[in-house]
Amino acid sequence: MKDALSPVSRSRRRRTTGFTAGAVAVAALSAAFVTAPSPPFPPSAAPSAPGPSSEPSPPSGPSAPRSVEPDAKASESPWIRPAGAPPTVFAHRGASSAAPENTLVADEVARRGGAKWIENDVQPSKDGVPYVLHDATVDRTTDGTGAVRSLTSAELDALDAGSWFAPAYAGARVPTLAAQLADLRERGGNLLLEIKGRHSRAEVARIVREVGEQAITRRVFVQSFDVPSLRYAHELAPELPLGLLRDTLDPDPVAVAKELGLAAYNVSHVALARRPEVVGALHAAGVAVNVWTVDTPARWKAMDDLGVDGIITNRPAELGGWTAGRSAG
Ligand code: G3P
Ligand code: CA
């Protein structure tokens, strides 16, 4: 099971129930954002994002219980949370429970909900332009049809990526990676960028180049299920931290992490729960552990107790509140 609630299930539920509570709450923001994509971010509301030359945000915030103590190697990694810190919140496809996934408005909702990290998926158009979209086709999340790789950038630019989720988001677009990165640079935050599906070296090079052009390399963490993509990324930009996505655990995750030069091993929470000792082994090797996609307090607690470093969730504001509330309680 990849998601506690699969994208398809979420889509069907949204189509039948109309507005979600979250969508209603951010409808005004959506309307303003869709019609005026780049308003200045109010300093009072801005998240504490690092500048382009600063280090990535380490986990911060109130203490939370955890069962696995970091060892010496773990303390050398900025991606492994210190004892007493809560897990990092990654907003999966933006705040995808409250806004249409992988759009700029979903990213903005995540930021305003306190998430310092946003997860997005990237894949190329027919003419080689990287776009932010999860599925292999545009059918589920836009008003168009067809494979992303069969559509030109002009065709992708014309699609409505918001109406499927709720009328308030009509007019939201499928962002290019360049637009997404520029938005991130302007508005703040860090990006967990998933290279979605098999990519050629040239396609990965385009992604790496666009990240470099926005001068936010130090705010981007690359992840992929596709091992060759990670190898290409490492060859092209060894400064980019890498995470390997896994549905199931490798027999020896530490060996895989060392071989690929991983900063993080990003595994399904269901798989990790079957062999929780893997967390300690990876930490001992200086490799962080992030889990996906976790949307309930019971599972947040289970993963927190295992000592994972980050939780990828469709409900980033709720998870942020949960970590704060848990420590306060
Ligand atoms: O970030 C982890 C998660 O995004 C991997 O699965 O299918 O949602 O891209 P998927
Ligand atoms: Ca993803």
UniProtKB/TrEMBL annotation:
It comes from the Bacteria. Residues 37-62 have a biased composition (Pro residues). Residues 1-36 form the signal peptide. GO terms for molecular function: phosphoric diester hydrolase activity. Residues 35-102 are annotated as: Disordered. PROSITE patterns: GP_PDE. SUPFAM superfamilies: PLC-like phosphodiesterases. InterPro entries: GP_PDE_dom, PLC-like_Pdiesterase_TIM-brl. GO terms for biological process: lipid metabolic process. Keywords: Signal. This is Glycerophosphodiester phosphodiesterase.
